[in-house]
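Late entry, evening session. Most of the bench is empty. Finally got around to the prediction I had been postponing all week. Sequence below, unchanged from the version circulated by S.P.
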Amino acid sequence: MNRHTLAYIALVITILYGAGFALVGDGSRNVYAALGAAIVAIGWISVGMLGKDAPKDS
């Protein structure tokens, strides 16, 4: 998949994860932080490992 598309998806996931802290109650923040951080990390690792550069124009 195109690296730019994967990076955009990972960025959206990261923003939604950060904004989600406003919605999560104090009692479940630890679980939210652990699971959300893992999902965000997987998203950014996917950009680096699975992303393919667009062909360069000559």
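Two things to note before I forget:
Residues 3-51 form one domain.
The chain has a mean pLDDT of 91.
Will write this up properly tomorrow.
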